[in-house]
Every structure is written in structure tokens, then in C-alpha cells.
Amino acid sequence: MVRVVVRRYAVKADSPAAGWVPVSYPIGAGSVELRWGSRDNILALCRGYTRPRGRPIVGDVWLAPALRGKKNERGVKYSALVFGRMFAKIEALLGAFVLHVHPDNYAAKKLYSRLGLQPTGKTTAKGLEVWTSPLPRQ
């Protein structure tokens, strides 16, 4: 069984992963980078960016190509397992968040929908769809 332990780091422009997953948004105080894997072999990455106004933005969602579409021994896709935990951790640390998705990225939209994120019907100035984590239950 593969254990999924997600480690938290501060977002830095010189992150070990910045070479293949560049920092996409301004780095606000309290922004986090979550990684799964070892120091020398990062298998998944996700960043939560804080903003002066509005919800935090989740970006730079990346899974190693060797794990894309693959399932663990229990039949659960690594993408759902890892990003489900990462998104839950970001929501616990930063609160409800938004995520920007390219309209043609059907695989990502299917995953995000399964993880409980919802499209808002809005788009960014760059034409990306805006998705949101559910509002916390009262």
C-alpha cells in the first residue's frame, strides 16, 4: 500500500519544483506549497496562494506523468487520492478557495467535480473557468 503523506512548505520562487511547475500567482503571506513524494522525487504538487482580497487561489496542480490515470492497489486513482487530501489540507489551512481551469481540460474538471468543487459559471480575463470549493457548513 502506498501511503500518502502531504508535506507543507512556504511558496518560494526558487522552490525545487519551480523548474517544471512555475509559480503562477503573486506569493502572498501564508501561501503554501504541498508536495507528495520524497525530497528528490516529487510525485505531486499543489499550491495555495493567499490574496489581499477574496478567496485564496489553488494553482499549479501537478501529478507526475507516470501516475496520471493510474490506480493504487485498492482501485483508487492517484489523482483523486492525492489531490483530495491536498485540497482538504489547503481548505483547512486557508479556508474556502477558488481554482482556475482551462475550459478544454476535461480530465481536470471531471476530477475537481468528483472532489466536490463546483464551477461558478464565471471566467477570468484569460478565459479560464473559475471553480470553487464548497462553502464551509454552518
Q: Assign an overall shape.
A: globular
In CATH, the topology is named: Aminopeptidase
Report Rg: 14 Å
Q: Quickly count the helices.
A: 2
Low-pLDDT parts are: none
Could you name the CATH class?
Alpha Beta
CATH superfamily: Gcn5-related N-acetyltransferase (GNAT)
Q: Secondary-structure element order, as H and E?
A: EEEEHEHEE
Please tell me the CATH architecture by its name.
3-Layer(aba) Sandwich
Number of domains: 1
Structure summary:
This protein has 138 residues and is of the alpha+beta class. It has helices at 78-94, 106-114, and strands at residues 6-10, 32-37, 42-49, 57-63, 98-101, 118-123, 129-132.
What is the element layout, followed by pairings?
Elements: E1 6-10, E2 32-37, E3 42-49, E4 57-63, H1 78-94, E5 98-101, H2 106-114, E6 118-123, E7 129-132
Parallel strand pairs: 4-5
Antiparallel strand pairs: 1-2, 2-3, 3-4, 5-7, 6-7
Characterization of this structure:
It contains two helices and seven strands. It is an alpha+beta fold and 138 residues long. The chain has a single domain, classed as Gcn5-related N-acetyltransferase (GNAT) (Aminopeptidase, 3-Layer(aba) Sandwich), CATH 3.40.630.30. The longest helix is centred in the middle third of the chain and has 17 residues.
How would you describe this structure in keywords?
7 strands; 2 helices; single chain; alpha+beta; 29% strand; 138 residues; Aminopeptidase
